[in-house]
Write a structure and sequence with these properties.
Number of domains of chain B: 2
Distance between the termini of chain A: 6 Å
Number of domains of chain A: 1
Largest interface: A-B, 62 and 48 residues
CATH class of the largest domain in chain B: Alpha Beta
Helix content of chain A: 55-70%
Number of helices of chain B: 24
Oligomer: heterodimer
Strand content of chain B: 15-25%
Strand content of chain A: under 5%
Largest sheet of chain A: 3 strands, antiparallel
Shape of chain A: globular
Structural class of chain B: alpha+beta
Number of strands of chain A: 3
CATH superfamily of the largest domain in chain B: DD-peptidase/beta-lactamase superfamily
């Protein structure tokens, strides 16, 4: 290892995109909460952003190879933390997801997402074949399956689901064979199908999860539940029109019709007040962010770095897809926040740490 | 550090490129989704957002009051709360319906019925599900604003009538509009609206009913009002001033008392109704909210028919009052000549059948001329006259004097009575006229029927020399219709003299009606309700006793007041039973007139502490000062009361 990389080696474009998305988020959090009992939330979010930026910079200075070296230990720490949260975790909103750290409640599963990205990168980097064998694929599946099961137990379907695209993208880049892909796709389709098929879903889903599925399929049956949430979100988005109602002027947002308008449904509030043009800006930024991540992966020095970056890209891309699709009523309510825009400490820290890993890879692309 | 990652730079560039395309595709799909919502379907969601945000709450216009001729309040309003169900979001309504039913104590089925009967109504219009909210209901709504967000309350004004059924039939009552009324109203009426159902409330509904306003407010997601968009104020209904004189009405109500019957007092010069009573009377305050089906059935099934306005709907044989018609025909047509006399031994025989005079078995009238026949109400004399006149002439005069025709009073559901004729018998009963029927008709029996109002109008017209003003209840109404049926001066002279004699001369049938210093005149009548055969079949129940009539007026020519009284099933002679009621009303009229000319009582002083204590106690405390703008919106008469 040679000298530590200099500041000009940072991906400044990525940081600009990142900062802009965060700014949109803070603006909309302010708009959504300034007139309510939640006023001041944007300041708290800013604080999280500052902490996140510091952590990102710190993480980017530690050679990712060193981090990848500790994959096994990190994995064990992650599992222990997940078991701990099930045993002693703090219950909020009906789920055990939080443990107190420095006076703040942190979602352990956010940390676990980061660990899984690292562990999968290490695992796939060590698979040196051009084609991924079924054996290795199953191993990877087990690596992900164990924490996934523990997260489902909390229960937190949304976060658990995020682990799946990490695995899928990793396996794909590691040379997934089309026959295996077909088999696993089929299994996946069957699983998703069974989730939507009540006689089967009764055995594998929690009642509130089944309610969300039902209300997604039949929103009109569910007056005030998640069907209502989806409908109100669609009303907010649709009524925003092309130009939007203007900052602080969204009736759905300001009068509280949008559920958790500062967090999971922040895109709904944004779309109402900023309109389609605002949506183009936000989604354009997310696209730029994701493409920039792929570009970083393409320029990574080695496969380990590439897997690390693409793991991050898979997680963020999945977040964006599931969250935004939910906001426009195209997917059920899963409780997945929109990265960088939604209010939330743990989620924000996760994204910054993940970007920290990307920076880490970026900074070392020319270093041997 | 282990070196497991050494020399591992063979990146799957192809697959990474595909990942980029997938990202672009994914974002593209999401943008398409937003395009559909925000550009294609934007209008729909905009209106949904508005519906969320805006709640329309009706402001119910108070109905116009009814005043008597001196400006005293007969009908006004009292404040009350109604419970509204907000139906903007059908899913919410369905969800909270059981909670609403439970909280307000309404059955769920009843609520569902109300909802289904209003399903054609625009969703943003709330419906009234409970018209009279109790304190418990108000507390329930206030404390469940956020968890039962489909309820709202509005201030409504309820009708308040004078207690005890005072003038109940003429005033009528209001009720929730029926579906037919809604259809007929050109969408002016909505379900849950109150409109006049009978009487003046119905006749002048368009005037009395104002136009409801609308308050558009902004509500947040838990149903809390956070702002106001616009308020379209309600336009209150117009006040109408009636020709009714509260004092006379009061006397008439009391004088008739609990007996079934009717009183109508008219000013013959104008056609204004000064008092109109029908007993028994319901208390319309009982229907001012919502009347239950049981209560309604009970009112309808009551054998005394309290909902029936006898003053304009009771079609009964006028008995001897009809002799005025026979006498008019005789004098006008000179058939038989005016000096015609008949001998009354207490009965007469025509066509082999015996017709009794009312004195049959007690005494006889002896030789009778027209004057004496009217005074003593000799049936035999009029049998003879009627037989000579024939049914055609009787029918002609009866019809010209108004029998068989509605008077056109401004009240719904007036009946016309019946003036039989040969043509009528052929058309309706498909038979020939029996000559014997003419005998009965000439004394007001048989098929001839009249209403108390008709007789008041008839006697008014004759005493006025043949000018028949259309009876009406609005004070100072312009363009009152009148009919003229020219009667010769001698005819009017003779008949009014005889009617004066009925009250004031020896042998008159209504000497008890006399009032010192006042030329009270009139004609009594006692009519069989049904034929003797039917009566025997039904048994001698009180119900089938005779109807007593008296139509009186004062003074004897060009009277100022005519009072027609019907006392049903009294079993006594008309002069005896109905006469005193006429006397009380006429006396009250003159007493008041005397005081007025002495300057003691004006409408201004008819307030607590003044002479008319009872009337004042009933009315005055509820009379708020009439504002200038209210007077401006006065009913057609456009008059101002003497305040």
């Amino acid at each position: 290892m040679k000298d530590a990389p200099g500041t000009r080696d940072y991906d400044w474009w990525l940081l600009v995109i990142l900062a802009t998305i965060c700014a949109l988020g803070v603006i909309e959090i302010y708009s959504a909460t300034h007139g309510s009992a939640l006023a001041g939330m944007h300041m708290k979010q800013l604080r999280w952003l500052v902490v996140g930026t510091i952590l990102m910079l710190v993480l980017s200075r530690v050679d990712y190879h060193i981090i990848l070296d500790q994959a096994l230990i990190l994995y064990l720490i992650g599992l222990v933390a997940l078991v701990a949260v099930l045993l002693v975790g703090h219950t909020r909103f009906g789920a055990k997801r939080w443990i107190p750290v420095f006076g703040e409640f942190l979602q352990v599963s956010e940390l676990v997402k980061l660990i899984i990205i690292i562990v999968l990168a290490r695992f796939f980097a060590e698979v040196r074949t051009d084609e991924l064998s079924l054996q290795d694929l199953i191993k990877a599946g087990l690596i992900v399956g164990l924490p996934l099961g523990l997260i489902l137990k909390q229960p937190d379907l949304g976060t658990a689901l995020v682990l799946v695209p990490m695995l899928v993208v990793g396996a794909y880049l590691a040379g997934l064979q089309w026959q295996h892909a077909a088999i696993f796709s089929l299994a996946g389709i069957l699983l998703v199908g069974s989730v939507f098929y009540p006689p089967v879903s009764r055995h594998i889903l929690k009642p509130y999860q089944r309610d969300r599925i039902t209300s997604f399929l039949h929103p009109e049956d569910d007056a005030k539940g998640s069907g209502y949430q989806l409908l109100q979100s669609k009303i907010a988005v649709g009524s925003g029109g092309f130009w939007g109602k203007g900052f602080g002027n969204g009736s759905q947002n300001q009068l509280g019709y949008i559920p958790v308008r500062y967090s999971d449904f922040i895109m709904s509030a944004w779309a109402e007040e900023q309109g389609f043009k605002g949506v183009l800006l936000a989604l354009g930024l997310y696209m730029a962010l994701l493409l920039r991540l792929v570009q970083n992966a393409q320029r990574a020095k080695d496969r380990a770095g590439m897997f690390l970056v693409m793991g991050v890209a898979a997680a963020l891309g999945f977040h964006v897809l599931v969250n935004v699709a939910m906001v426009i009523g195209a997917m059920p309510v899963t409780g997945i926040p929109l990265p960088l825009m939604s209010y939330g400490g743990s989620a924000t820290l996760f994204v910054f740490l993940a970007i920290g890993l990307v920076m880490n890879v970026r900074l070392r692309r020319f270093v041997n | 550090m282990s070196y497991w990652f050494r020399n591992d730079n063979r990146l799957p560039q192809g697959r990474l490129a595909i990942a980029s395309y997938l990202i672009v595709g994914m974002i593209g799909l999401l943008i398409l989704g937003f395009w559909k919502l925000q550009v294609i379907d934007s209008d729909r969601y905009t209106s949904l957002a508005e519906r969320n945000r805006v709640r329309s709450i009706p402001i119910i216009a108070p109905r116009g009051r009814m005043l008597d001729r001196d400006g005293r309040v007969l009908v006004d309003n009292r404040p009350s709360f109604s419970v509204l169900l907000l139906r903007d979001d059908p899913a919410l309504v369905d969800k909270y319906l059981p909670a609403v039913a439970d909280g307000l104590g309404i059955s769920l089925d009843d609520l569902k019925d109300q909802l289904s009967s209003t399903k054609n109504l625009a969703k943003f219009q709330p419906i009234i599900i409970k018209p009279e909210a109790s304190e418990a209901d108000i507390a329930f709504i206030e404390s469940h604003r956020s968890d039962v967000p489909v309820l709202e309350m509005i201030n409504v004004s309820r009708r308040r009538y004078l207690p005890g059924g005072f003038m109940a039939h003429a005033e009528g009552y209001v009720g929730e509009v029926s579906e037919q009324q809604i259809e007929a109203s050109n969408s002016k009426l909505r379900p849950g609206d109150f409109a006049g159902k009978s009487g003046l409330e119905r006749q002048y509904n368009d005037l009395l009913m104002g136009t409801d306003g609308m308050r558009r407010v902004i509500v947040n997601s838990v149903g809390k009002e956070v702002g106001r968009l616009s308020t379209q104020e309600a336009i209150p209904g117009k006040q109408i001033q009636l020709s009714i004189d509260y004092d006379l009405q009061q006397v008439a109500e009391q004088s008739l008392g609990a007996r079934p019957g009717a009183v109508v007092a008219l000013d013959p010069g104008t056609g204004e109704v000064l008092a109109i009573v029908s007993h028994p009377a319901p208390d319309p305050n009982d229907f001012a909210v919502r009347v239950s089906n049981e209560e309604w059935a009970q009112l309808n099934d009551d054998p005394l028919r309290p909902l029936f306005n006898r003053a304009i709907q009771a079609q009964l044989a006028p008995g001897s009052v009809f002799k005025i018609v026979t006498a008019t025909a005789m004098l006008e047509d000179k058939v038989p000549p005016e000096n015609f006399t008949a001998f009354c031994p207490g009965y007469a025989t025509f066509y082999g059948r015996q017709f009794k005079c009312w004195v049959y078995g007690k005494s006889s009238h002896g030789v009778v001329n027209l004057h004496k026949a009217i005074l003593e109400s000799c049936d035999v004399f009029f049998y003879n006259v009627g037989m000579r006149l024939g049914i055609d002439r009787l029918s002609y005069y009866g019809s010209k004097l108004g029998i068989g025709h509605k008077t056109g009073i401004d009240l719904p559901s007036e009946e016309a009575g019946l003036m039989p004729s040969e043509e009528w018998v052929e058309r309706v009963q498909h038979r020939k006229w029996y000559a014997g029927e003419t005998i009965s008709v000439s004394t007001g029996q048989g098929a001839v029927t009249t209403t108390p109002l008709q007789l008041a109008r008839m006697i008014s017209g004759i005493a006025m020399g043949g000018v028949f003003k259309q009876p009406h209840l609005l004070k100072d109404a312009p363009n009152v219709a009148e009919e003229r049926f020219d009667l010769s001066e001698p005819t009017v002279e003779k008949i009014t003299d005889a009617m004066y004699g009925v009250v004031n001369e020896d042998g008159g049938t209504a000497r008890n009606v006399r009032l010192p210093g006042i030329e009270v005149s009139g004609k009594s009548g006692t009519a069989q309700v049904i034929g003797y055969a039917t009566r025997n079949r039904m048994g001698k129940q009180k119900k089938f006793e005779d109807n007593a009539w008296f139509v009186g007026y004062a003074p004897r020519r060009n009277p100022e007041i005519v009072v027609s009284v019907l006392v049903q099933e009294s079993g006594k002679h008309g002069g005896e039973t109905a006469g005193p009621v006429v006397r009380d009303v006429i006396k009250a009229y003159y007493d008041k007139k005397a005081k007025k000319t002495e300057g003691q009582v004006t409408a201004e002083s008819a307030k607590p502490g003044s002479g008319n204590a009872r009337a004042a106690a009933l009315v005055a405390p509820r009379v708020p000062a009439i504002k200038e703008d209210e007077t401006a919106g006065r009913a057609p008469a456009e008059n101002r009361n003497e305040r």
